[in-house]
Amino acid sequence: MTEDTLQIAVRESVPGVAVIDIHGDITPAVEEQLMQAYRDCEHARAILLNFESLDYLNSGGIGLLVTLLVRAQRHQQQLHAYGLSDHYRQIFELTRLDDAIAIHDDEIGALSAAGGDRHG
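Given the sequence above, the corresponding structure tokens read:
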């Protein structure tokens, strides 16, 4: 299997808040990429998942997000998501992921909720 279906970039938006930019598909084939991105964020108190460029998410991908959520909870990190299409928002609601991962419309809203407002 190739990992060409997903590109991930990790960046620090503001001190203590990391963003994982997701471009492509989240399926079981990309587990190592996603978990490495999480390890790159272990220092952050909050992690924002940017789904603006998400192309596809299957049930195995949902499982990976649950794994990521469990790891974040173990480290007492907040997990936020933004940029989900209406279809994927509905999936988050149906699977109740939205109970554990706060959903926002955009990065500014997610940053504000994570306590990392940009000033200036």
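The chain is about 35% helix and 30% strand. Try to locate this feature in the token string yourself.
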